[in-house]
Amino acid sequence: MQKIPLMDLTGSFPQIYEETMNKIEYLVKNTQFIGGDEVAAFDKEFAEFCGVPYAIGCSNGTDALVIALKALGIGVGDTVLTVPNSFIATTEAISCVGAEIDFIDIEEQYYTMDPALLRKYMLTTKKNVKAIIPVHLYGQMANMPELMEIAKEYNLKVIEDTAQAHGASIEGKMPGQWGDIATFSFYPGKNLGAFGDAGAVITRNEDLYIHMKKLINHGRWQAKYEHEIEGYNHRIDTIQAAILRIKLRHLSEWNERRRKVADQYEDLLKSLDIIGPKVRSNAQHVFYVYTIRVKNRDEFQRKLKEKGIETQIYYPIPLHLQPAYKSLGYKTGDFPITERISGEILSIPLWPEISEMTIACICNELRALLVN
Ligand SMILES: *Cc1c(COP(=O)(O)O)cnc(C)c1O
Fold first, then answer.
1. Mutate to test the pocket of ligand 1, among 185, 240, 291 (most ligand atoms within 8 A of CB)
2. Coil, strand, or helix at residue 170?
3. Integer Cα distance of 324 and 321 in angstroms
4. Is the dihedral of CA 363, 365, 370, 372 positive or negative?
5. Which of 55, 176, 273, 317 could make an SS bond with 46 (beta carbons 3.0 to 4.6 A apart)?
6. DSSP string covering 229-272
7. pLDDT of residue 14 exceeding 70
8. Closest atom of ligand 1 to CA, residue 135
9. What are phi and psi of 347, to 5 degrees?
């Protein structure tokens, strides 16, 4: 049997390859490598896509989080809350600005920050909590209506880590329409992916926009060698902005196809002893990945690999138990829901162009393993 990858990034090439290559050639011939019209146009078009007034392309999704935290004035002496089941970028950014990390466990059904646990934490904490970073995971948004209510009550800033949910929504509102800032990654495998590293920050607040724009480009606003503040170089490459503009025009259609693939999976897997993804009522899921929960996950994954089916675990080790955070003093049992699901979750192949036949083939193998 042919190998089936977790995702096939060449799937979109028939739609974008020629236009992209022509654009790259044009930019190279004109030596347009930094800034310029493509970056300005991307910022404008991405803001429009997100339904917010301001977007700024930047170097990657990790830097986007750092920029957001800095723009909100968060640093030494402040605590920032996020979830233990995210990619380490989320917590790296908190440490990067000198703030303290703490965690809120997740809602078991949706894998995102549990508002009830956030409220409980805020009622008892003695820490100087300044912000929360809910992570919109696997393509689905966190419970923003409830999280925003608590954030308002306790005067917390909200940064939405949207590296996995470009185009998702809840109650008809997308990331960036809830929190102070939403951050994006355009890592190649994300729903909107560059041909390298790239990211973005978006906001509805003009002051935050101006501040972030300066932070991204050495503290300058208009004049090339007037630096109003000390910023940094977090810029997006012109070539990446140009590629993202081309791909952005297809993003809604690709997200729609991801949902169709998910429907097919749901249909074919419903009688099996697995827990599939649950879509919140009143929400649009964009299925960055299709994550199921199975018993004996590691053995199951190994057997699928033998059959040529690639899978991935997002994430096998909760952040609070990572060697890098040993000094924070967490132990097993601190965040039981994340710990439990980390031993059960498995993401199976999904990309917009995956064929119905390939899905059927994967589901047959899953069924064969589960009924034996
Ligand atoms: C991919 C990802 C990031 C980091 O993005 P980079 O562009 O790779 O720096 C941050 N948070 C989450 C949840 C991610 O999935």
1. 185
2. strand
3. 8
4. positive
5. 55
6. S---B-PPBHHHHHHHHHHHTTHHHHHHHHHHHHHHHHHHHTTS
7. yes
8. 13
9. -95, 130
- The two structure tokens encoding residue 10: 């060449």
Tell me the pLDDT tens digit for each residue of 192-213: 999 999 999 999 999 999 999 9
Q: Mind listing the pLDDT tens digit for each residue in 164-186?
A: 999 999 999 999 999 999 999 99
* Burial letters 140-164, b for 16+ CB under 10 A, else e: bbbbbeebbebbeeeebbbbbbbbb
The torsion defined by the Cα of 137, 141, 147 and 148, in degrees rounded to 10, comes to 130
Q: How many angstroms separate the CA atoms of 245 and 45, rounded?
A: 8
Closest approach atom of ligand 1 to CA 64: 9
Q: For tokens 């917590």, what's the residue?
A: 91
Q: Yes or no: say if 352 and 258 are a contact pair by the CB < 8 Å rule.
A: yes
Contact (CB, 8 A) for 25 and 201: no
